[in-house]
Amino acid sequence: MRVRILLIIAVLAAVGGCSVGFEVWIPVDAGTGPAPVPTSTKVSGTRLTPTPDPLAPHYTIRMRLFVADQFHSSVLIPARVDVDGIRDAQAARAVWQSPTLATDKAAQQRAVDTMDCFHDNPLLGQDDPTLPLATCTPDASIAVLAPTLLTADMVAGATYGVSDDPAQGGTVWVQLNSSGRRVMAEMAPKNVDVLLALLFDGKYFSSLTVTAKLTDTLAFRFDDTNEARVVASMIVNR
Questions:
Q1: Which residue in 81, 124, 160, 183 could disulfide with 232, CB within 3.0 to 4.6 Å?
Q2: 3-state class of 231 per DSSP?
Q3: What values do phi and psi take at 133, rounded to 5?
Q4: pTM (2 decimals)?
Q5: How do residues 87-118 score in pLDDT, each as one tens digit?
Q6: Which residues 6+ apart lie within 8 Å of 143 measured at CB?
Q7: Residue 40 region, left (φ>0) first, then alpha (ψ -120 to 50), else beta?
Q8: Which of 153, 151, 160 shows the shortest CA–CA distance to 37?
Q9: Angle CA(108)–CA(67)–CA(136) in degrees, nearest 5?
């Protein structure tokens, strides 16, 4: 009986506090990820914390809300396969970070007409956090994102493990500090059902669906726990 009780407590601790819905989840590109992560330390059931590595590469971590219509439907546009995309970073910024991108359908269409999602992104790592951003997702779509909502200095840490539903792969739980929690407390009730994207150097990795009670922990889903481990390591080594 004692063993059974301990197991139940462990399971409850592992899944407690995560009621975030998921909408879009993108596999990590192994060719651009960091080197293998060192040994992890176990935390609260199936949640693991990567060991910080001072030699690991650093990434610019930002989270942006999707642009949404009046029904809070997030803007996600199919990418074109026949486009002659912009190859210059300055020219790309003028179109893919147009100040009118969040509200102007014509500006969004110009971004779609000039963005080649099947080749390297010339704006990668050079996006302006104060402006909207159009960027590709690996599922052949273009996400239209608002100016940056959360930055690395609002992140307290990250853990990873099996999703609450084991059939759904891995999850990265991002813990926010007091500054991040204040931003979420103000934003979340006004943006229920809008997607929030996680980006590294401007590259889209995953997103979650905003709920009214979203506050201190953000749960981003991935294909499996190995991909979740890589992303959690990138956050811990930010």
A1: 160
A2: helix
A3: -145, 130
A4: 0.79
A5: 999 999 999 999 999 999 999 999 999 999 98
A6: 66, 75, 76, 134, 135, 136, 137, 197, 204, 207
A7: beta
A8: 160
A9: 60
